[in-house]
Amino acid sequence: MRVLIFLFLILGTTIYSQNNIPTDYFSNPLEIPLILSGNFGELRSNHFHSGLDIKTQQKEGIPIYAPADGYVKRIKVSQFGYGKALYIAHPNGYTTVYAHLKKYEGAIQNFVKENQYQKETYTLELFPEEKQLSVKKGELIGYTGNTGSSGGPHLHFEIRDASSRPMNPMLFGINVPDTKKPTINSVFAYPLSKDAHINQSQKPLKLRLILQKDGTYKTESIKAIGKLGFGISTHDQQNGASNKNGVYKIKTTYNGEENFNVLFNKFSFAETRYLNRYIDYAYFKNNKSRVQKLFRQSNNPLSIINAENEMGYVTVQDDFNSIYTIAVTDYKNNKVTVSIPIIGENSEILQARESNKTEDFIFSNEATSITKGKFSIYIPANSLYENNYLDIQVKGDTLTIHEDVIPLHKNITITADVSNYKGSDIDKLYIGRLNYKGKPYYNSTYKKGTKLSTNTKTFGSYILASDTEAPNIKPLNFSNEKWISNNQSLQVKIKDELSGVSSYRATINGKFILMEYNHKKDVLTYDFNDNIILETKNNLKVIVVDNVGNNATFEAIFFRK
């Protein structure tokens, strides 16, 4: 009875809140057809996607218009992440967010540039006062781009509630045409209890999908016993694009009774990393396909799970046949279903669970410290979602912490004792994570005496690496002692092959100039429209520092009228 009351309260709150969402308040931020490369709630690396990725016809510079009255409450310029981002607060309590911009417009752009020159930095975060940068509905506020960690030109658009939780923009009447049914890629069955098995195996089983004449799917029958769970890999496509986006709703039933519901309406940033508990993480790492587990395991507080019976598990009894169904729906109510016939049969187990025991067993709710060779590892409590054996090996300067098939929710700390190195050599050391080619990638490394440490949320191999090479700097669109009166910009390529670029600074005739850093192309760009007072003969100076302190200086003379 308590469970029913709890579910009624959750569903009632959801229905009430949805009915009070304004559906005609926000207009489209772009005056082009809305075609999506990513939608709300889509499964991404370590997080759920928090907005809509709107295609911009494979180009930058599409005008962005304020979808309602409001004021700019936050501006952030970063080399990574959202790149150039803008946050507008509206009188109805919601905030709209625009990311990966090429540039801002008007007073907003002037405000940003003034602060960048005042602080002498490209990256910054600003919080204007409420009446400082007001905007009206339909006002031009910026232009679409490809800044930050964007994989191509587009606009990332969000709507957040008064508690800064991202919400599905479709709820607000943002209309994206979609006449396509979701696609089911694969379905899995998981034997979960100690005695459970499926087809005489205790390993997860990928089920064969059989398309029916009515467009639904049915899987092969399974013979099973004990507590089971199911998972699904699925995606949706909207009209006009081939991108494989997320679905809106997943609903399961067991013998006709509601079992487990997932709804992508809203979530909080505090819970988004629990995606790694929600998906079959090991399967994703090995097969690059995200399987959504349609059952709630321990340490999974996700609010997208909006209804459940017995946490989504089903218990199959001997000599009892049953049916499990999964219905996948997009926001436009296009639906596809799959049914799984289950035959209750307690037979001999031919394939038992794998037991990979090692000397290092980690209790997930306890902090653990482990020392291996010159390395020590600190794992805070609740870094793991469940107790696990970890395979930890050290070979010389390389530490391998298991495989990246177990997700980490918190940072663990790796510390290396480098007292066997000379003092001058220590300054050039860093801890790098080895990629699949065996190349180390710089992990933010902290030095204290003869100890180096780094934090990470990923298992795998880490190595003590050294970088004694200075960054490389070369001009792209000008040459030393040449006239460049027709240039709109100065472009310089900067690169550091080992530890990577940490910082840079540029001046002309001793005065700071703002150079925007495109880390995807390793290019610094100065725009002559910034109107730094120049002479006929000008001295450009660029200093670049890598992550272990190696630095390089580039100087050139250019002439301009």
Write up this protein:
With 561 residues, this protein is mainly beta. The protein has four domains: 25-172, Distorted Sandwich (Glucose Permease (Domain IIA)); 183-344, no CATH class; 360-466, Chondroitinase Ac, Chain A, domain 3 (Sandwich); 472-559, Immunoglobulin-like, CATH 2.60.40. It is built from five helices and 48 strands. The strands form nine sheets. Strands 15, 16, 17, 18, 19, 20, 21, 22, 23, 24, 25, 26 and 27 form a 13-stranded mixed sheet that branches. Strands 1, 4, 6, 7, 8, 10, 11, 13 and 14 form a nine-stranded antiparallel sheet that branches. A five-stranded antiparallel sheet has the order 29-30-34-38-37, with no helix packed on it. The radius of gyration is 27 Å and the shape is globular. The termini are far apart. Mean pLDDT is 95; it is low at 1-17.
Helix-strand layout with pairing:
Blueprint: H1 2-19, E1 36-38, E2 43-44, E3 47-48, E4 52-55, E5 63-65, E6 70-77, E7 84-89, E8 95-99, E9 101-104, H2 106-119, E10 124-126, E11 134-135, E12 140-144, E13 154-160, E14 166-167, E15 183-191, E16 197-198, E17 205-207, E18 209-211, E19 217-219, E20 222-235, E21 249-254, E22 257-263, H3 275-278, H4 281-287, E23 292-293, E24 305-308, E25 314-316, E26 321-329, E27 335-344, E28 360-362, E29 368-372, E30 375-379, E31 388-390, E32 392-395, E33 398-401, E34 412-417, H5 423-426, E35 429-434, E36 440-443, E37 445-448, E38 451-456, E39 460-466, E40 472-475, E41 482-483, E42 489-495, E43 501-508, E44 511-512, E45 516-518, E46 523-527, E47 537-546, E48 551-559
Parallel strand pairs: 19-27, 20-27, 41-48
Antiparallel strand pairs: 1-4, 2-3, 4-13, 5-12, 6-7, 6-10, 6-11, 7-8, 8-13, 9-12, 13-14, 15-17, 15-20, 16-20, 18-19, 20-23, 20-25, 21-22, 21-26, 22-24, 26-27, 28-31, 29-30, 30-34, 32-33, 33-39, 34-38, 35-36, 35-39, 37-38, 40-42, 42-46, 43-44, 43-47, 45-46, 47-48
